[in-house]
Write a structure and sequence with these properties.
globular; 7-stranded mixed beta sheet; about 450 residues; alpha/beta; about 15% strand
């Protein structure tokens, strides 16, 4: 198992050029999340890769590289939920209509958490938001026909495919031909350069502008905040993610801007001009449509570390398709392989949103590699990956013939540590899944609601 984890870690480090090798990581053994896939290996490896990238920054100025220790049980647990509310409950993570439905010839997942995605699916089906009515109408459709119709109406859906059918699909083939991470460097003599690295708080002084939503991007920026970065998240008016906000806004300030407004557009450009890192998860053409394409971003902030993801990859017929972790699992054969391994008659997804979380840690690795490269005089950079590329990584690790796992036993939140005082109530967090010696993860701000802060950098 350990050799497989180190090989996977080296794959992430090699894809980003983050420096270091997996043999330098201390791996604390533990259990495994139950799955036909090596989900806990993926958790330990992706967390370890991000920590190695941070260690490279902490070792600046000829300081020794700090030891990185990754706890398998805690890494697995953080792939689920890290927050433990005290006397209050987390909102339901799924809309009542969302889920898997039996179509005429197979299965389809409807993703309806966002109101406009729900409206698109119900509009295509011509039924009210009632699961029984939805199920009855879905049963009349061929799965791929309904997928096409819902996506065409602006919704989000995915038919269940086998791994073999995904490999043969034009989009599956496009993803297989792409690198795990697309990287470009842009030498510049202007813009942000080095900062004074405090080895105990290596990202203190780094500003991260966060344009991400459920779930990979917020995981990335949460990690960067834990090592000292100032993270400012921007959402449009009306956008909500109640089921995950207490989990992923830890350490951040959250503001709103309507980027279709001229005034807000100018305000965003001013924020971007002061950023070191931009992390965004919009579809590949969305920022272009808002007048914030790659050339505009680079001109606004020369030397910017620009990190992004999409769902289905950056080439192929689905390059601009809406997607989420659960949909990519359906498309890529993961949910089908789980069904076969479990001997079930309906799709069996991964036990956690592993594609999102692993991609989030990979995005953080990219951001850290970009910051390290800028420190070394390489200039600005652009990094792109996708949930579908991470699905390819997971499938490449192998599919077990049955659901396998061993109980994970993460340490409970330490009752002696101060509570996290949120607007929803007090809470505690699991201990961090990784320790970079001398630079512990620590979040200075509690989780907060979207839109609860001003769209400005601290001190400005």
């Amino acid at each position: 198992m350990e050799s497989a984890i180190r090989a996977l870690t080296d794959r992430f480090l090699g894809a980003t050029g983050a420096g270091g090798v997996a043999s330098d990581i201390v791996l604390v053994p533990g259990g495994s999340l139950p799955s036909a896939f090596a989900v806990s290996d993926l958790a330990q490896a992706s967390v370890g890769a991000a920590a190695m990238a941070l260690a490279r920054i902490a070792a600046k100025d000829d300081r020794p590289t700090p030891v990185v220790t990754v706890d398998r049980d805690l890494a697995s647990a953080w792939f689920g939920v890290s927050i433990r509310p005290d006397g209050w409950g987390m909102p339901a993570p799924w809309d009542p209509v969302a889920g898997d439905y039996a179509a005429r010839d197979g299965w389809i997942k409807l993703h309806t958490n966002a109101p406009h995605h729900r409206a698109a699916a119900l509009g295509v089906l011509g039924v009210p938001g009632d699961r029984e009515a939805v199920a009855a109408e879905v049963a009349r459709w061929a799965a791929e026909d309904l997928e096409t119709a819902v996506v065409g109406a602006g919704g989000a859906a995915a038919a269940l495919r086998t791994a073999a059918s995904w490999d043969a699909h034009p989009q599956g083939a496009a993803v297989a031909a792409e690198p795990l991470v697309h990287t470009e460097w842009f030498p510049t003599t202007t813009g942000p350069g080095t900062w004074v690295v405090d080895p105990a708080r290596p990202l203190s002084g780094v500003r991260v502008l966060d344009l991400t939503r459920v779930l990979a991007g917020p995981v990335a920026t949460r990690l960067l905040a834990g090592w000292g970065a100032e993270v400012l998240r921007i959402d449009p008016p009306g956008w909500e993610e109640p089921g995950v906000v207490p989990e992923v806004t830890l350490g951040k300030r959250c503001a709103r801007l309507d980027l279709t407004s001229t005034a807000a557009h100018e305000q965003f450009l001013a924020l971007l001009a002061g950023a070191d890192v931009l992390v965004h998860g919009y579809r590949s053409d969305a920022l272009d449509g808002l007048g914030l394409g790659n050339e505009v971003r680079r001109a606004t902030r020369p030397g910017l570390v620009d990190v992004s993801l999409d769902a289905y990859g950056w080439s192929g017929p689905w390059a601009r398709r809406r997607g989420f972790d659960s949909l990519v699992q359906m498309s890529s054969g993961i949910a089908h392989a789980g069904m076969v391994a479990a001997g079930d008659d309906r799709p069996v997804p991964l036990p956690v949103q592993a594609l999102d979380h692993a991609t989030g840690y990979l995005l953080a690795t990219c951001a850290l590699a970009g910051l390290a490269g800028r420190q070394e005089g390489r200039g600005g950079s652009r990094w792109r990956t996708s949930l579908a590329a991470m699905a390819r990584v997971l499938v490449d690790t192998g599919i077990a013939p049955s659901i396998e796992g061993a109980d994970i036993h993460p340490a409970d939140p330490d009752p002696s540590t101060p509570s996290e005082h949120t607007v929803w109530g007090d809470a505690r967090r699991l201990p961090p899944p990784v320790v970079v010696a001398g630079a512990p993860l620590r979040w200075d701000l509690p989780a907060s609601p979207l839109g609860s802060a001003t769209a400005a950098w601290l001190g400005e």
